[in-house]
Every structure is written in C-alpha cells, then in structure tokens.
C-alpha cells in the first residue's frame, strides 16, 4: 500500500511539474521590459541593416545615437542616404538626384527607429505584447542555427503607424535582431540588424549631412511642418 501511495505521489509530481514550472515562466511583458532596460543602457550603436519591403531589398550601414539621431548609408541602392539629425529627416535618392526633406520628422516610430530606448517606450505604450508562440528560443529562419525569442505586438489604437509588429530578439544580448511590421495597407516591412556594436562613442557630427549641390530638394514631402 505504501509503495502504491508513493507511486501515485510521483505520478502526480510528473504530471503537474509542467504546470508548476509554468508559474515561474517569464511573461512576454517581463521579457520586453528586459529588452527595454537593455536599450536604456545604449547611448549609441552601429552595424549593418537590411530593409525588405517585398518589392525591394536595401542594404546599408546604420548608426544611431540616443535619443533619436539616425543615419543609414546604403550600399544597395548605392550612395542612397537616410539621415535624421533630431529635427529634420533627409532622404537622398541619387538615382533621381533628389533630396527629400521633412522638418519636424521623427524616426522613432519607423522600423529602424524602433530599435531604440524611445522606440521601445512607444511600443510598450501603444501595443499589446505577447509571445508569438512561447518563450522558448526558435530559429530566426527555418533551418537557421541562429536562435531568437519572438514577440508579437498588436496596436491598441487605429492611429498608430504599424498595425502589427513582430520582434526577434537575441536571448543573450537582448538586442533586436529583426523587426517585422505590417502597415495599414497590409504591406510587410522587414528590418534586419546584424553586427551591432553598442556604446562605441559615435560623434553627433556623424549625423550632419551636406546636401549634394546638384540635387533637387523637396521640402516637407511627408506632411507640412507646423512651424
């Protein structure tokens, strides 16, 4: 009888162990907060970025300095540049010898700008956060040896830019490896970050951009400035 009782006890432990363990399972919000805390310690970073809109794939070098300075020098399309100096967004398109300029622009709600302390604050405020499937690391892509943890974010208000976001995060560094976003028109945008080095001492001068003399400048191409 005693042996049977012990067997039943161990059987109970075996069956309930996953349930007991799940009580200590990290929630998606807890993990997101860890990522946010990590980026709160990032004063600047540089590395490589690729942007896939489904119609075009772009590659370049990215530099970021808190709170919101951003520069991307593209190798594909060659010589194309995106710069945000804190007050003005500039996009140089060499193919058309054009510079698109936007006063009072802000990159923190864009794909590249989301990978920052302010971008993460915005996501926490504007999106509900959940695991895509579970907290368990999964391959970045099918068959990939690179493991990530993936979060799924859905906007709370219709006014927010991207209606849904997926974040793929390195479990050890807590740095964002990939951002996938869906626009209102259901267009998918994918931002991949690789070779990221943080707190390297990037000068603010790096985000100054001299408009090519031969380029035509188109001001406030997104919307009219309130100034």
Structure description:
This protein is of the alpha+beta class. The chain contains three helices and 13 strands; from the N terminus they run ααββββββαβββββββ. It has helices at 2-22, 28-40, 117-126, and strands at residues 44-52, 57-65, 69-76, 81-84, 88-93, 98-103, 127-131, 138-139, 147-155, 164-169, 176-182, 188-198, 216-219. The chain starts with a helix and ends in an 8-residue tail after the last strand.
Ranges where pLDDT stays below 50 over 5 or more residues in a row are 1-23
The gross shape turns out to be globular
Tell me about the largest β-sheet: 13 strands, mixed
In DSSP terms (H or I, runs of 4 or more residues), the helix count works out at 3
| Fraction in helix | 10-25%
The radius of gyration computed from the alpha-carbon positions, rounded to a whole number of angstroms, is 22 Å
Strand content: 35-45%
Number of strands: 13
Distance, first to last CA: 85 Å
Mean pLDDT: 85
Class derived from helix and strand content: alpha+beta
- Name the helix and strand elements from N-terminus to C-terminus, one letter apiece: HHEEEEEEHEEEEEEE
């Amino acid at each position: 009888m005693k042996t049977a009782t012990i067997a039943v006890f161990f059987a109970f432990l075996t069956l309930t162990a996953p349930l007991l363990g799940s009580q200590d399972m990290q929630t998606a919000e807890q993990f997101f907060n860890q990522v946010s805390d990590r980026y709160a310690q990032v004063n600047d970073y540089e590395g490589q970025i690729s942007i896939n809109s489904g119609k075009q794939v772009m590659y370049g070098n990215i530099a970021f300095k808190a709170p919101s300075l951003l520069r991307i020098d593209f190798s594909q399309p060659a010589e194309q540049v995106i710069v945000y100096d804190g007050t003005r967004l500039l996009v140089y398109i060499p193919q058309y010898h054009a510079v698109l300029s936007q006063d009072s622009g802000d990159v923190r709600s864009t794909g590249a700008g989301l990978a920052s302390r302010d971008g993460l604050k915005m996501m926490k405020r504007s999106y509900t956060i959940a695991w895509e499937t579970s907290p368990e690391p999964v391959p970045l892509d099918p068959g990939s040896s690179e493991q990530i943890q993936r979060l799924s974010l859905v906007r709370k208000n219709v006014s927010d830019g991207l209606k849904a976001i997926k974040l793929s995060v390195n479990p050890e560094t807590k740095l964002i490896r990939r951002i996938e976003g869906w626009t209102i028109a259901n267009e998918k945008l994918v931002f991949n970050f690789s070779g990221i080095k943080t707190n390297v001492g990037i000068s603010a001068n790096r985000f100054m951009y001299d408009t090519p003399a031969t380029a035509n400048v188109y001001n406030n191409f997104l919307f009219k400035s309130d100034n």
